[in-house]
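Checklist before submission:
- one chain only
- standard amino acids only
- sequence pasted in full

Submission:
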Amino acid sequence: MLIINPAAGRGGYKQNLGEALNILDRGGYRTTLFFTSGPGEATEIAAAHGEEYDVAACIGGDGTLSEVISGLMKLKNPPKLGYIPMGTANDVATTLALPKNDTVGAAKRILNGEPHPYDVGGFGKDKYFAYIAAFGAFTEVSYVTPQAQKKRLGHLAYILQGAMQLPKIESYRTRVEYDDGVIEDNLFYGSLSNSTSVAGIVKLRDEMVGLGDGMSELVLVKDPGSVEGLGEILTSVLSHRFDSDKLIILHTKKARFTFEKPVAWTRDGEDGGKFTDIELCNYPRPIEFIF
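Returned file contents:
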């Protein structure tokens, strides 16, 4: 099954779709197309029909992929997962080194790639994320930004300019309970992820992330105190040193975040809601991802 988000990448799926289907057909697949018409529909399609197919693939951005994974997580015997990235950030594609906005190249990877165990994140009681759940200033600047602005300004320019121009460095008094302990501090940013690429601009070192190891990466940024302090953190992250004393990166199977007031979260780049208490976890290896 191939689930297509026709809005992703300005309708870029139309380019060479016929050739991509021909490649899959010659490789032995009989492909059925499903088109989404709104948020959440990819989840419904994957959950309703996933077990009828050997592979469930999607054409879209990370949000579409996230919806498909959420649907597959509802199945007792989910099919293997394929991805034809067609969007803006494509963090999962960056992590997996998949061809971006290239239907033919990605179709070849589905045909010739190997299935790999892939961890899925749990968000609260009954929601999931493919690669990240996050809160804080970086999410406000990057993830909540309208797609038109992202495309016009570019991720790096927008995050650096937007973060530096924040009228107030806002932080959140946070208690984080994780596998090995508790951290209480004023946090500027926090996330639980399973990706080497975050927001299209931050790249964790490959050895820091295991996609099917049952562990997620807990990233916390303490209150920088000033715009200059924020600049030091950004320099540490963008240079891949990760040596700022305001930056914490840990590995954990679960994390519980509690706040003094409701804090907005994003889930795979989409609105995740506001919470004063939210539990996140790692579901180890429920999906086989072809790449």
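Reviewer check: The first strand starts at residue 2 and ends at 4.
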